[in-house]
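User: Fold this; tokens only.

Assistant: Input:
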Amino acid sequence: MHAHGIVHRDIKMHNVVVDTEEVKLFIIDYDLAEQVEDDDDMVCGFVGVVGCTAPEVLDSRKEEKFSGIRADLWAVGELFQNLVLWSNSDPPEIKALRHISRLFMQEDPGRRPPASEALTILNSKLAEFLEDGSSD
């Protein structure tokens, strides 16, 4: 989505559908989406739901601009955090999700890793947790 210049602006559990047979996740409801050039392209205005939006989006009620892509990444971190909370166990996959969730939910948007690096980070952490059984 971001690679195609689209920011969703309303990522939350209700806008995610999982195909359990194909093991694929789909983001739906693009009513609030906007076209952007890259991570540095700024948007403004509060949209979405309080509790599922990045801190800088809440600040945008003052009409401050922010990176829509980095705000989406924060929302993905929130989504991952909720998935982790639903787990009754702590396997390596959950530990890896918890790690990437914390990275995406950093207060400073500039410190959030780009989505293009997220899968690499996730796989690296998963391999680390599988190898030594360490906690994050």
